[in-house]
Design a protein that fits this description.
466 residues; 8-stranded antiparallel sheet; two-stranded antiparallel ribbon; 10 strands; 12% strand
């Protein structure tokens, strides 16, 4: 099949340096042999289940350092990224002004590191066999970008503590977007596009034009040297108009991506949010993907709906509900005739869950919604302070995010509200020490302890104390 469609496969191969959209068929054949590992990696479990894997590791560099380049314009940062690609760098991340402001708010040390007038920064990592090699490479990058007036300021970090502080910019600041107040959230539904690196400066202008067209603001984080962009538009999923806007914004943005021979997914695969657009990216090659899926999974049992989906699920079709379930909602969804409601009479509207703590159903639902499921609370790293219960009982129900998911499901009507005081929910609530480490360490500051306390209060109210 691959041999017969080789020309089609090569014609529709994106020109981006990274690509995780669809099935990778362009480099899995060699010497008339199929490399099954290459074929299966990145297929999201749609072709098979991997039960064991052998991986090859790379030796850690002996020395590494970072340079922070401050730029007056986003375009300057994009051009600087193209300039420094030739310096054999290990990483090059771009952050916009919104993320820089969050960094300064989350850690006052960044007020002394990040220039106030910077519209964007580049954070560049250089590795080498000697300290001198790393230092000289970073100094050369600073010199070249300053001479070409692409960066107006630069800071080099070579000592461990300085490097760690700058590394936290990329590891910790982006998730803090979810700490923003209100129901509007940075949504990662188009946050994995990749384009040919040379196209980055002009492509950023296209991105801004699409956002302006739909009257949406967004944060921008990019692995600039290899052309991958994480764009997170700010939208409110409780607003039907914003939900509709998601679909149109994605279509327009992906059209710009495909126009420059990029990909709609650089490293995170397709999932439910991008599968709808796979056919648009690959055209007639999509039919070859369908053949591949049928060869491995003729009954469509393996992770259905991902990569190959003939039912045509839209981008917004699988969103979790965000509206609080009320008695009015139940009435409108019931089979009772409208004649039972007097004309101009407002149907009764009250939350179906009566809370025990001093907060409103809206407050509680928003607290649960603030969890974006990133999985940071599942860490077992020695350098992180997170859920001690998960460390001793590493199952999903022990995670802080499990409690947020449960409470969100109850408040939005996906679970019967009567389960709130049930033994099943109580058992999960008991998997919490109330140490508050999750609340402190969570990038979005989700108040899991209060959600758990609500569960325990309801259990006590129904059963009493032993």
């Amino acid at each position: 099949m691959i041999s017969n469609n080789q020309q089609l496969i090569q014609t529709h191969k994106p020109k981006s340096l990274v690509n995780r959209c669809g099935y990778r068929l362009d480099d899995v054949m060699g010497n008339n042999r199929l490399d099954m590992a290459k074929l299966l990696v990145g297929t999201e479990g749609t072709l098979g289940i991997i039960t064991e894997a052998t991986i090859r590791t790379s030796r850690l560099p002996k020395h590494s350092g970072l340079i922070l380049l401050a730029c007056e314009r986003l375009e300057n940062a994009a051009n600087a990224a193209q300039l420094i690609r030739k310096y054999d760098i290990a990483a090059c991340d771009l952050m916009d002004r919104r993320l820089l402001q969050l960094a300064c708010e989350s850690d006052e040390r960044y007020n002394h590191v990040l220039p106030k007038t910077a519209e964007a920064i580049l954070l560049v990592e250089k590795t080498g066999e000697s300290f001198a090699e790393v230092r000289e490479g970073l100094q050369q990058i600073a010199k070249q970008t300053r001479q070409k007036k692409l960066a107006f300021d630069s800071k080099i970090a070579l000592e461990h503590d300085d490097v760690e502080l700058l590394c936290r910019l990329t590891h910790r600041v982006v998730p803090t977007l979810y700490r923003l107040k209100g129901s509007t959230r940075p949504l990662p539904f188009v946050e994995d596009i990749a384009i040919p690196p040379d196209e980055l400066p002009s492509f950023l202008v296209r991105v801004q034009n699409v956002l302006k067209k739909h009257q949406v603001t967004a944060s921008l984080f990019a692995h600039a040297a290899h052309g991958q962009l994480h764009i997170r538009p700010f939208l409110d999923l409780a607003d039907p108009e914003h939900v509709r806007r998601m679909q149109h914004l994605a279509r327009d943005l992906y059209a710009e991506v495909l126009d420059v021979k990029g990909t709609i997914s650089g490293e995170h695969a397709d999932g439910l949010s991008r599968t709808w657009f796979v056919r648009e990216q690959y055209g007639p090659l999509y039919d070859v993907f369908v053949q591949l899926k049928q060869l491995f999974d003729p009954q469509n049992r393996l992770n259905p709906g991902k990569i190959i989906d003939e039912s045509g699920q839209s981008l917004a079709q699988n969103l979790r509900p965000v509206q609080i379930m009320t008695s009015q909602t139940e009435l409108s969804d019931s089979s009772e005739p409208d004649a039972l409601i007097e004309e101009n009479e407002t149907p009764p509207s009250k939350p179906i869950v009566q809370l025990e703590l001093n907060w409103t159903p809206d407050d509680m639902t928003l607290a649960a919604r603030s969890c974006n499921g990133c999985g940071g609370c599942r860490t077992t790293s020695d350098i992180e302070r997170m859920c001690p219960m998960f460390r001793i009982a590493p199952a999903e129900e022990a995670t802080p995010r499990a409690k947020a998911n449960l409470m969100r499901a109850i408040m939005t009507g996906r679970l019967d509200p009567e389960v709130l005081g049930s033994d099943a929910i109580s058992d999960i609530a008991d998997l919490c020490f109330h140490c508050h480490q999750c609340r402190v360490e969570c990038p979005a500051s989700v108040d899991i302890p209060k959600l758990v306390t609500e569960c325990k209060c309801r259990s006590m109210w129904r059963k009493g104390l032993p």
